[in-house]
Amino acid sequence: MSETIREMIPETDLVARIQELGEQISRDYDGESIYLVCILRGAAPFACELAKRITVPVTMEFMTTSSYGSGTVSSGEVKIKNDVEIPMEGRNVLIVEDIIDSGNTLHYLLEVFKNRNAKSVKLCTLLDKPERREVDVDVDYVGFTIPDEFVVGYGLDYDQKYRNLPYIGVVEL
Ligand code: IMP
Ligand code: MG
After folding, report:
1. Is the pLDDT of residue 71 over 60?
2. Domain residues of the chain, as ranges?
3. Is the pTM of this model over 0.90?
4. What spacing in Å lies between the alpha carbon of 48 and ligand 1's midpoint?
5. Average pLDDT in the 21-45 region?
6. 11-68+76-149: which CATH topology?
């Protein structure tokens, strides 16, 4: 109960990078609209900041997948707990995640969404921990690539805590 948080990515760097991602996404989807799927709960702060910086039309959907429970290690098993509401058939789906770790969550969602006949499916993650990858995932937009450390803040939690930190930090137990 007495862990401390060491800052890894300050808020100003997050905001600047999200602005860049928004500009890049706006250019890439010029003339199209985006069906943004925010993976709850971790991606919510990032998805909202990102959406504000995209200049093409955006609809926002939310989905809950199974999580880590209270530990810091993935179970590898993925389930959709709460699904999107508006059909994604024929839409340009942009999945927005907080972090890609083993890759299991996004690998699974990509398959599911392709079977739903989306026009396109792309991935955007705030953070990427490539050292921990168990399955290959093509990521289209990455905010920051980080080393293999357990991070919190800007939506990411440790046992449901620290999601409200405005920066990314490392938990030191
Ligand atoms: P994956 O399926 O292993 O790629 O894990 C993806 C999910 O695990 C993310 O959406 C996070 O919710 C969680 N996760 C992975 N690494 C971290 C971390 O360092 N801090 C907090 N949550 C994490
Ligand atoms: Mg998550």
Report:
1. no
2. 11-68+76-149
3. yes
4. 19
5. 98
6. Rossmann fold (3.40.50)
